[in-house]
Write a structure and sequence with these properties.
Elements lengths: L25 H10 L5 H20 L4 H18 L3 E4 L2 E4 L2 E3 L2 H13 L18 H11 L4 H12 L4 H10 L6 H17 L3 H8 L15 H4 L26 H15 L2
Antiparallel strand pairs: 1-2, 2-3
Helix pairs in contact: 1-2, 2-3, 2-4, 3-4, 3-5, 6-8, 6-11
C-alpha cells in the first residue's frame, strides 16, 4: 500500500514578500541570504521551496507524525546555520567538506543523515510545528544571542524551564549574585521587548504581523506564546546551538537539571 503523504501548511508562501522570491534561482537566494543578513525573507523562501521535499523524505522513513515534525524543525535549524557555508561550483555545490550536484541534493543528503540519529520518545517531544514555523524559531534563537547575559538567563529559565522569578533569585543568590525581584522582572520585560526588536523587520512582518503588508507598519507586541512556542528539543536536552527561545515542559530529572546548569553557566559567562 502506498503511504499517503501530507505536508505542513506554509502560509508564508502566499506572503507578498515571499511570492516574488520564489522565481529566483537557488544561487540567487543563497547569495542574498549570505549578503543581506538583516533580511530573513531569503531563508523563508528557501524553506518554502524545499520544505515539502524535506518533509516527504522524513515521512517516507516511517516516523510518527510527532517525530517527523521534530526532525523537520531540526533539519531546518541545521540548514539555517549551514547556508552561510554554501558555495556554488561548476560541479554543483560545496559546503565545507561536503559536495553535491545541486542544493536540492545536498539538502536531501543532510536530511538523510539526520534520520539516522536516535530520537527522543514521543512523550518527550513538545514541539508543535503550527506554533513555531522553523524560520521563526531560528531567528528568535539568533536574536536571543544579542541580549545581555542576565536578560538571556531570565528568559531561558522563566520561559523555557518555567522557573519563577523567586526561584531564579534564590539560585543566583547561591551563586553569589544578588538581584531583587524588581530587577529580574525588569530584565524579563526588557528581554521580551528586545528580542522582537532584534528580529529582522521582514520576519516580524511575516510571522508576527500577518495582517500588515507594509514594512513601515508600526510594530505589534506579540503574545508570549508567539515569542516562545513549544521547544524543539527533548525535555531538558540542549542542541549544539545558541540558547533556545521556546517554551518546553521542563522535568525534574537529573539529566535535565545537569543540562540546565550547564546552560546557565554558559549564559552567565557571556
Amino acid at each position: 500500500m502506498v503511504k499517503a503523504l501530507s505536508f505542513p501548511m506554509m502560509a508564508e508562501r502566499q506572503h507578498p514578500l515571499i511570492q516574488p522570491l520564489l522565481t529566483l534561482s537557488d544561487a540567487e537566494l543563497i547569495q542574498a541570504f549570505q549578503n543581506q543578513r538583516d533580511r530573513g525573507c531569503y531563508f523563508v523562501a528557501l524553506y518554502c521551496r524545499y520544505g515539502p521535499l524535506v518533509y516527504s523524505v522524513l515521512q517516507h522513513h516511517g516516523r510518527s507524525p510527532v517525530q517527523v515534525d521534530y526532525l523537520f524543525a531540526k533539519v531546518w535549524h541545521g540548514l539555517f546555520f549551514s547556508f552561510d557555508l554554501v558555495e556554488f561550483t561548476p560541479e554543483g555545490v560545496k559546503v565545507g567538506d561536503e559536495e553535491a550536484r545541486s542544493l536540492r541534493n545536498w539538502i536531501v543528503n543532510r536530511t538523510a543523515t539526520l534520520i539516522q540519529e536516535d530520537l527522543p520518545g514521543i512523550e518527550h517531544i513538545t514541539y508543535v510545528l503550527q506554533d513555531a514555523p522553523p524560520p521563526l524559531w531560528c531567528y528568535l534563537e539568533a536574536s536571543l544571542a544579542y541580549l545581555s547575559p542576565l536578560s538571556r538567563l531570565v528568559l531561558v529559565t522563566t520561559q523555557t524551564f518555567h522557573w519563577s522569578l523567586e526561584r531564579l533569585r534564590a539560585y543566583l543568590d547561591l551563586q553569589g549574585e544578588t538581584y531583587s525581584l524588581e530587577e529580574l522582572h525588569q530584565h524579563l520585560e526588557e528581554g521580551l521587548a528586545r528580542i522582537v526588536e532584534y528580529l529582522p523587520p521582514d520576519i516580524r512582518q511575516i510571522y508576527l504581523m500577518p495582517n500588515r503588508m507594509s514594512e513601515d507598519s508600526p510594530a505589534v507586541q506579540p503574545t508570549l506564546e508567539e515569542l516562545f512556542p513549544n521547544r524543539v528539543e527533548e525535555v531538558g536536552a540542549h542542541l549544539d546551538s545558541p540558547p533556545g527561545a521556546s517554551v518546553g515542559e521542563a522535568t525534574e530529572t537529573t539529566d535535565s537539571i545537569d543540562n540546565l546548569l550547564a546552560e546557565w553557566e554558559r549564559i552567565l559567562s557571556g
